[in-house]
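Batch manifest, entry 17 of 40.
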Amino acid sequence: MTSPPLYLASASPRRREILDQLGIPHQVLHVPAPEGEDEPQWPGEAAADYVRRTAREKAERAVRWLADPDRPEGLPSPGEALILAADTTVILDGEVLGKPRDLADAASMLARLSGRPHHVHTAVALAAHGRILESLSVSEVQFTRLSPHDIQAYCATGEPLGKAGAYGIQGRAGRFVQHLSGSYTGVMGLPAYEIAELLKQARDNP
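Output type: structure tokens
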């Protein structure tokens, strides 16, 4: 029996790179973004709950889109594919540090992270055979102390934009990381171990 194809409900090149490194064939699914605020956090919602909910909602939205009879030609129905979604967030003192609005916001986030440990949560959700399988990777990252020049120089590269917590560990910010406890690929945006386990679970228990 042939395994159903995997579709990644994310345009992140970092997530594609991780799947490529793992040797997992996949295609990108360009699901239309919902209207309104991008991934809002509910009032009173804990940061850990927020990241899980967001990943699950991304997978559910992809399933609904594929179930639409007006979906683009050539795409499978939800029952003919595995759909992988993920969400990554940086958490400092219980607060979610999302994607910076601009470089000034990025500089503010980096100043807060300077010399302190923080947590990176990456939740993954795999829609498979009418159910959604979920997993969560939690890592602790210790930043070195950053000088104003360090922050200014990094922001000048434009790299902080579009990244949770205003940094990408796989890029120039890698030199800021004094210690990492957890999953490097999880901090990048797609935890390798958790992905492999979810895919195994989906394919062993269709």
